[in-house]
Structure formats: structure tokens, C-alpha cells
Design goal:
The chain has one domain: Arc Repressor Mutant, subunit A, CATH 1.10.10.10. The chain is 53% helix and 8% strand. It is built from six helices and three strands, in the order ααβααββαα. It has a three-stranded antiparallel beta sheet with strand order 1-3-2. A hairpin with a 4-residue loop joins strand 2 and strand 3. The longest helix is centred in the last third of the chain and has 18 residues. It is globular. The N and C termini lie far apart (32 Å). The structure holds zinc ion. Zinc ion (ZN) binds next to loops.
Length: 115
């Protein structure tokens, strides 16, 4: 099987469950797998969390430090800044047909609640 290029891989990854919130949470501070699981009040499926962290690490946005905590890379930081820009563009529409996110900033778990 031919592997997707980084461009395709990234766009597929950002559409997947938890990708955005994980980038945002790790950008805020280094967090371990368990801390991320607890942050979501265990609403995240543990296997899915592990798999998403692996994908984010593989694409170079996160890295794991010697203490076992996930850390944002410089590339990840830049991507995160651009995602914040996109977020504020989306929120600038006062007549959006979508409900306002009930979470803080980009730490959104709406997809879990509305499952
Ligand atoms: Zn939301």
C-alpha cells in the first residue's frame, strides 16, 4: 500500500476525533497519557487515545519526553497557532447555524457528548 504524503495525512488526521483537543492540551503543557485520559473524565476511549497520540507523534506535532509526557514540537506549535487563527475566523460569524462550543477555547469534547 502506498503511504499518504504528509499533506494528505495531516488533513485526514485533523478531521479525526480528539486530534484538535489533544494538540491544544499538549500545547498548553506537557501531559502524560494518563493525565490526558483523566482530563477527558475518562470519556475518551483509551485505545483511541493511544492511537491518536501515536499518529500525532508520527506526523511530528508531538513528541514524548523522557518523563513519559507528551510535548508539543516546534512544528506542532506553529500548526497550533494556525488552528487558533482558523478557530477565530469560524467564531467571527455571528449568524452561524452551529451551536456555540460549550468548552473553553479549542479544548472541545463536543463530539463525545453528542455521540
Ligand atoms: Zn465544541
Amino acid at each position: 500500500m502506498v503511504q499518504d504524503c504528509v499533506w494528505n495525512s495531516f488533513y485526514k488526521l485533523i478531521g479525526k476525533k480528539y486530534t484538535l483537543v489533544l494538540i491544544e492540551l499538549v500545547n498548553e503543557k506537557n501531559r502524560s497519557y494518563n493525565e490526558l485520559l483523566l482530563y477527558s473524565k475518562r470519556m475518551i476511549n483509551p485505545t483511541l487515545l493511544a492511537s491518536r497520540l501515536k499518529e500525532l507523534t508520527h506526523i511530528g506535532l508531538l513528541t514524548k519526553n523522557t518523563a513519559g509526557k507528551y510535548k508539543i514540537t516546534s512544528k506542532g506549535k506553529k500548526v497550533c497557532e494556525q488552528l487558533t487563527v482558523l478557530n477565530s475566523i469560524l467564531l467571527s460569524d455571528l449568524h452561524s447555524p452551529y451551536p456555540v462550543c460549550m468548552y473553553n477555547k479549542m479544548k472541545c469534547f463536543c463530539d463525545i457528548l453528542h455521540r
